[in-house]
Every structure is written in structure tokens, then in C-alpha cells.
Design a protein that fits this description.
PduO/GlcC-like_sf; 144 residues; globular; Beta-Lactamase; 5 helices; five-stranded antiparallel beta sheet; PduO/GlcC-like
């Protein structure tokens, strides 16, 4: 099972709207399927040209390692050589800051991940969670 295009588009639209409503900086949102393929990507006007790569990297990290960004950050703090090695293996496409969020259905099935970038990491994460909830899905950040 995987996230649908319709769900992914709802997530991107709602995440960007949340950022606008909260007065966040311009955001970029990436929605990936469980295999890491991009299903939807949206970048607000004024969001930097590197932001799509950052958003994908945040979502990719949680999928690639099977752990939340908070768990990745803890692992990186406890074992910097582990994180450096993993970052090298992925060409630097894994991040250890909030903004990458697992997407699950109500039964707990993994459907994909969302990455948001553009503002402070916790604000990015809040936008991702808002988008996921708007699609009627479950966000898993590690802060639950």
C-alpha cells in the first residue's frame, strides 16, 4: 500500500496553507512513497532553489533509516560516525532535524513520508503534520 496522488496533493496544499496562516517563511513540501519516490512536490514562491532537495532529504531520511528525525538526531549525537557514514552513503540526502514525518493510515500501515523545509525545523514539522492530518492520515514524528 502507498500514498495516493490525491492524498499527496492534499498534504502539500494543506501544509503550505498552514505555513501561510502561521506566518512561516516560504515552504517547500515533498511527499514520498515508501520506496522514496516523489509523489508530490510543491514550492511556494520565494522558497530557495535548494529547498526541494532539502524537503526530499528530510522525508528520505525517515524512510531510509526507518526511524523518526528525532531518533536520527539522537543516534547522530550518540554516534556521530554512524550519521556521517549514513550521510555519505546517501550522498548527503538524510537530515537529523525535525521536518521529516512518517505518514501512516489508521491501521498503522506505512504509506510514505513528508518532508517540509523553509522555516525553523519545528515549524516545518508542524506544517507537515497539518498536511497529513488534512488528508485524514496519521503523522508520526517521534514527539507523540
Amino acid at each position: 500500500m502507498t500514498i495516493t496522488l490525491e492524498q499527496a496533493q492534499t498534504i502539500t496544499t494543506a501544509a503550505l496553507a498552514h505555513g501561510t496562516e502561521q506566518g512561516f517563511n516560504a515552504l517547500t513540501v515533498a511527499v514520498l512513497d515508501p520506496g522514496g519516490a516523489i509523489v508530490a512536490l510543491a514550492r511556494q514562491d520565494g522558497s530557495g532553489y535548494l529547498r526541494p532537495d532539502l524537503a526530499v532529504g528530510k522525508a528520505n531520511g525517515v524512510l531510509a533509516l526507518g526511524m523518526t528525525n528525532r531518533a536520527i538526531a539522537a543516534r547522530a549525537a550518540d554516534s556521530p560516525e554512524f550519521f556521517t557514514s549514513v550521510a555519505g552513503l546517501t550522498g548527503g540526502k538524510i537530515f537529523s532535524v525535525p521536518g521529516g514525518v512518517f505518514v501512516k493510515d489508521s491501521a498503522g500501515t506505512l504509506l510514505g513520508a513528508v518532508g517540509v523545509t523553509g522555516d525553523a525545523s519545528l515549524n516545518d514539522e508542524a506544517a507537515a503534520v497539518a498536511g497529513i492530518k488534512a488528508a485524514g492520515l496519521v503523522a508520526v514524528t517521534g514527539a507523540e
